[in-house]
Write a structure and sequence with these properties.
Helices cover 26% and strands 35% of the residues. It is α+β, with helices and mostly antiparallel strands. The two termini are 39 Å apart.
């Protein structure tokens, strides 16, 4: 197993600065997920670790050894790709054994490793088949098996589940988590799917425009986002945002926007009061919005429901507040119809404030 250290890592393509000063320590046996929108630099970062992309500047070390100039085969890593990359004319067994044969492993050792990997992945009955005879999920398991037989110090995953259907992705997420716990190997996983990132990662690295926005455990990112981008990217449905003006004095502050007037919670009032800007961005998670019970208070407001989305285990209510569209996640037992006038209440402990210019959390 190994620790991976990225120090001041940069990648430039002519005038495009794809990865900008990435500093990251991936601990031994840790499962770290790089997540972000297309073009954020996550796959480029992974490919530099693998040795498939040349580093413009910076340093990559694996288990204390700088690998900048080492070819991929000498880095003791194994990579699982999005497109499986299986040889169509070979059996499953031969696909899994091919890398070991190229490294001159003995026949008995190859057979032992392939059988062990097949048992871990539950694909023993498939070893004689060709890739065209396999489903998408089975092909993905073969690709994983080809990496497992290497016994690498680091596993690299480049969006390996993106070609699978929704149900199979859920199943494979669970299997990948079990696999990592069984193998106890350092793993770096790239995805654009924040649900995958939250469910798989011991820690998650959120990237945007080549920059690392925040690194942390999944629930820390969710509950304490460093900026508006992280707050909006992590979570589904996404966090609601509304631009508000701050009025009042001392810690008796109010956030106002187009008919919406809410008291600034005491826990953040002092920080908001000391902030030089009087216009901020208010962030509200959909589950922090609920149907109001009782009389109006400092955290409730009237609105009309635009669209009702019943999902079985929850209901999403689309409405407008502060002049912008918002979404509330409510209990499935709530009976609300489209265009009905209702009163909603916000959980003051789950309100977030961001600087309107820098987008940093306050």
């Amino acid at each position: 197993m190994a620790k991976v250290l990225l120090k001041d890592l940069n990648k430039k393509y002519d005038d495009t600065h794809a990865v900008k000063n990435v500093n990251l320590e991936i601990r031994d046996r840790e499962f770290v997920v790089l997540v972000g929108p297309s073009g954020c630099g996550k796959t480029t970062t992974l490919r530099m670790v693998a040795g498939l992309e040349e580093i413009t500047s910076g340093e990559i070390s694996i288990d204390g050894r700088v690998v900048n100039d080492l070819p991929p085969m000498d880095r003791d890593i194994a990579m699982v790709f999005q497109n499986y990359a299986l040889y169509p004319h070979m059996s499953v067994y031969d696909n899994m054994a091919f890398g070991l044969k190229m490294r001159k492993f003995g026949r008995d050792e190859i057979q032992k490793r392939v059988r062990e990997a097949a048992e871990i992945l539950g694909i023993q009955p498939l070893l004689a088949r060709r890739p065209r005879q396999l489903s998408g999920g089975q092909r993905q398991r073969v690709a994983l098996g080809r990496a497992i037989v290497r016994h690498p110090r680091v596993f690299l995953f480049d969006e390996p589940l993106s070609n699978l259907d929704a149900k199979l992705r859920v199943q494979m997420r669970v299997e990948l988590k079990r696999l990592h716990e069984r193998l106890e190997t350092t793993a770096i996983y790239v995805t654009h799917d924040q649900v995958e990132a939250m469910t798989l990662g011991d820690r998650v690295v959120v990237m945007k425009d080549g920059l690392v926005q925040q690194v942390g455990e999944p629930l820390d990112l969710y509950s304490r986002p460093a900026n508006r981008f992280v707050a909006g990217f992590i979570g589904s449905p996404a966090m609601n945002f509304v631009e508000v003006s701050i009025s009042g004095a001392g810690t008796d502050l109010w956030a106002e926007a187009h008919g919406l007037r809410l008291q600034v919670p005491p826990r953040v009032a002092q920080r908001v009061a000391s902030h030089p800007e009087k216009r901020l961005t208010l962030g509200i998670r959909p589950e922090a919005v609920r149907i109001a019970n009782g009389a109006a208070d400092d955290y409730s407001f009237a609105t009309a429901v635009d669209v009702v989305e019943p999902l079985g285990n929850e209901i999403l209510l689309n409405f407008r507040a502060g002049g912008v569209p918002m979404v509330a996640r409510v209990d499935p037992g709530v009976r609300v119809k489209a265009h009905e006038n209702i009163r909603l209440s916000l959980d003051p402990e789950r309100l977030h404030f961001f600087d309107a210019k820098t987008e940093a959390a306050i």
